[in-house]
Structure formats: C-alpha cells, structure tokens
Amino acid sequence: MNNYYDILNVTPEAARTEIIETYQRLKKVFSEDQPAIYGLCSAEMLAEKIQELDLAYQVLSDATKRESYDKELKERGIEPMTLKNGVIAFGTIRKIEEEQPKEKKIPAEQTPEKIHAAKKLEPANKPAATQSFEEKVNGAVLARLRKEKKMSLEDLFEDTKIKIKTLEDIENDIYERLPARPYLRGFLAAYASSLKLEVNKVVNDYLGFFDEWKNTQKPPQQP
After folding, report:
1. The pTM is what?
2. For the chain, which domains are there?
3. How confident is the model over 81-106, as pLDDT tens digits?
4. Cα separation values, 195 from 51, 126, 130, 205, Å
C-alpha cells in the first residue's frame, strides 16, 4: 500500500500549503462531479481513493501527526517514491487531469454537451441535423433510435468511450446497476450527442424516470 506522501503525490519535504493545495486539487479530480474519471475506475475504487486522500491529508496536514508518521516511516525503512505527476493507485494524475475540461479555454457560452459534440468525428451514417421528437425518452426509446440510425453498441462505445455493459444497462433501464446521477447525466449527454438527439430532452426525460425509481427505493434502516 502506498504511504501518505505517495497517495497525495508530494515529497516528504513538501510544505503544509503545498499539501493543502494538492489535496484540494486531487479531491476535485476524483470527485463524483467529474464524469470523465468514471471510465477509468469503478465507483468502489473511487470511494477507496477518496478515503485514502482524506486519511493522508489528516495526518500530513497536522504537524504533530506528521512528525510521528515520518518517524514511523524511518523506523520501518520506508522511503516515499513520489515524483511529480507520479503513479497513484490507478493511473497517473497527469492522465486523469487531462481527461478533465480545461475551463479557462472554454468560451462561457459553450455548454459541456456542445464541447463533447464538437470533439467527436461525425460517423458517415449519422445525420447532420439534431433529431427532435415528442415521446418520453427511456432506455427502450434510446435503443430503438440507435437501431434506426444503424449504430451498434460497439459503434456507440467507440464514439463515446462508455462501456458497452453500461450502455446495455441504460437501454434496458436497469437503474440499480447505473452509476451515480452526475455520471449518468454525463453518459446520457454523450449518448444523445453521438446519435444527434436533443441532449436536454434525453437527459431530463431519462433522469425523470431514474429519479422516480430512486424515490421508490426504501432508505436503509437505522441500526
């Protein structure tokens, strides 16, 4: 298991201000508001990473705890191997951060959905215009529209980088296997953009069904 310096990707000589800044940056990178990271790790791995970051920060940001921890590392002969943009848990910080939107380069009037669509190469079999329709969008409707456009799940995976299993769960309305709502919103937007559908309608309709299902689930009983 990585030591706390490696987890936070800082050197043992790092000042407290650097530790705080790095912790805040990594928390943002691994937060559930970043759909891009969901394709790099499972929800369980993400939760484990957040827990590791919190624990490392609690120790290294406290002078007394850090001194005791450094002494323990020295006694055990452990030397942190942290390098700038070095390896952490699963993948590299640089790789993951490159997946995140570069906000300062994005015009204010441009939405995430438009940005996503602009980056994609348009397959020859997709129409140029956005398709409008009246019916409520659930998984069955998405599957039908995809087949009408003669796109396979493999084609959709290549275009959106969403796992085929997740695409199947979306189309089959298997809500209990779908990711957290922020990730699902991003996946639905990518799906709609790929098929040239109205992004807002697809996202809002599908999340409406998803929320209805979620509201029917019994909350866990208190011990």
Report:
1. 0.45
2. 4-100 (1.10.287.110), 112-216 (1.10.260.40)
3. 544 333 333 333 444 444 444 445 54
4. 37, 7, 8, 16
